[in-house]
Amino acid sequence: MRVRFRGVEVRETVLLHGPSGWGEFGPFVEYADEEAARWLTAGLEAAWGRWPEPVRDHLEVNATVPAVRPEQVAGVLARFDGCRTVKVKVAERGQTLDNDVARVAEVRALVGPTVSVRVDANAAWTVDQAREALTRLSAYDLQYAEQPCPEVADLARLRVLLARDGVDVPIAADESVRRAEDPLRVAREGAADLIVVKVAPLGGVAAALEIVAGAGLPAVVSSALDTSVGIAAGVALGAALPGLDLACGLGTVGLLAADVAARPLVPTAGVLTVADAHAVVSAADQPGLAGHELSGSRRDWWLERLARCHEVL
Ligand SMILES: O=C(O)CCC(=O)C1=CC=C[C@@H](O)[C@@H]1C(=O)O
Ligand SMILES: [Mg+2]
């Protein structure tokens, strides 16, 4: 990683190659096999299966700003060409609400009033903390707040409290969808205004499409910090969604210090195209692989994990 993101400094992943092209298997290292196995299903779908037909040929993508200091924000934004939406990480462990306010204020000052700004707390706040934080951050005009609190019931309660306070910040569910036993519960309980969907944690493009249909809420497709190969699957999902009004969090290849593809899937003029994603997945080779291969015990660890997850399927 160029800068630390969700505690990750070095991103490791496995690329699979099958008759349909390249797939990715890169569950975060702390995930147990049962959860990681869904990521394998997604990788196998990409390399051996078929994705649904696209209904659009490009997607708008958001810039993603990790929990950096305000003086680092301009440098991060410079890596996202033409993005009209910015997502800012907040509630990072070891930081304060003042740090979040300073970062979001810097983003808003740099992008001006017409760009949309959203925040992602990764389930780090209690309801009271979220209420206080979003009340302060709403001064910077937020498009939405992603997973402010961990529990579905907390999200539902927060929505009621914010409405009562007159704080207009919609709530998006991410972990409550991708890490939940029941990904539709958040929709059933009225706990979110929209959902964030990610191909790998949800077990593939087809599975994610079903969840969006079942939820009946607007959806945003986001990455799992994948290489261009995994991002291509995200583009396939975004391209197949019947409705898509918001920018997708698929611009994260620029957060990696290096990528595997000859033409990395980074947004140009704020968009990613289905044609470019298709080119990555169907390439004969991924040239970056040669420079980034794992060896020794890390390689063994991934191969053993792959085998164990395959057993779970
Ligand atoms: O949505 C984006 O802008 C980028 C992707 C992103 O934020 C994430 C990718 C991978 C892991 C997550 O912690 C994080 C997220 O929570 O959405
Ligand atoms: Mg999130």
Automatic annotation (TrEMBL):
One of its GO terms (molecular function) is O-succinylbenzoate synthase activity. The gene is menC. This is o-succinylbenzoate synthase. Keywords: Lyase, Magnesium, Menaquinone biosynthesis, Metal-binding. It is an enzyme of class 4 (lyase). InterPro entries: Enolase-like_C_sf, Enolase_C-like, Mandelate_racemase_C, OSB_synthase_MenC1. Its cofactor is a divalent metal cation. It catalyses: (1R,6R)-6-hydroxy-2-succinyl-cyclohexa-2,4-diene-1-carboxylate = 2-succinylbenzoate + H2O. Its EC number is 4.2.1.113. Converts 2-succinyl-6-hydroxy-2,4-cyclohexadiene-1-carboxylate (SHCHC) to 2-succinylbenzoate (OSB). The active site is at 89 (proton donor), 198 (proton acceptor). Residues 70-165 form the Mandelate racemase/muconate lactonizing enzyme C-terminal domain. It comes from Ornithinimicrobium cryptoxanthini.
